[in-house]
Amino acid sequence: MKLCIADPPYLGRAVRWYGEGGGGVARGEGQADQHPEAFLWDDPETHRQLVRDLESNFEGWAIAMSVHSLSTYLSVVETESRNGIRVAAWNKPSAVTSGNRITNHWEPVLLRIPESRKGWQSGDRIKDVLTCNPLRSNFIGAKPPEWTFWVLQMLGYQESDEVVDLFEGSGAVSRAISDTLFI
What we know:
It is a single chain. The chain is an alpha/beta fold. Helices cover 23% and strands 17% of the residues. It contains five helices and six strands. It has helices at residues 14-18, 44-57, 70-76, 145-154, 172-178, and strands at residues 2-6, 60-64, 85-91, 106-112, 129-131, 162-165. A six-stranded mixed β-sheet has the order 5-3-4-2-1-6, with helices on both faces. Helix 4 packs across helix 5 (172-178). The longest helix has 14 residues, at 44-57. The relative contact order is 0.20.
C-alpha cells in the first residue's frame, strides 16, 4: 500500500518562517529550512491542491497543519469521500505561545485512513490524540519520532507498505520511518 506523510509549510506562516516571498526578511532567513518559494504555501489554493494530489496518488495519507488552516483543508475534501477522513490532535505541552490571548498547544493532523485499515480487525487500537513535546531542533517544524510513529499507526502501517515523506525538510520524519525499532 502506498502511504504519504505531508508536513508542508503551514498556511499563513510560510514566508514568516521559511524565507522570502517577494520581499522582506523572515525568521527562517539563512537557516537550513529556508524555502525560496515559501510564498506559494501562503496561498490556500496550494494547500487545497495538496489534498487533491494526495487523494489521487496515495491510498492513505496524513497532513500536518496549524489549527488555523484546518477549515481550508476540510473544504476540499468532497462530501462523499469524508468517510475515512479523520482529524487527530497532537497536544504539545511545552509549545511556544504566540502573542494571542488564546494560546495554541495543539496541532491537527488530517488523515485519510485506507479503507481496508479502518476496522478494529485490521490492527491495534490507537488513540487519536498524541501528547508529546515538539522536537528540539534548529529546523522549524521538525516532528519528533513519536509523532511519526503515531501517524503511521493511525494509517495502519505494515512493513510491506511504501511510505513517502512528501516534505523531507529536517529529515526527522524520514528517519523515523526507517527506524528499525518501529518495524
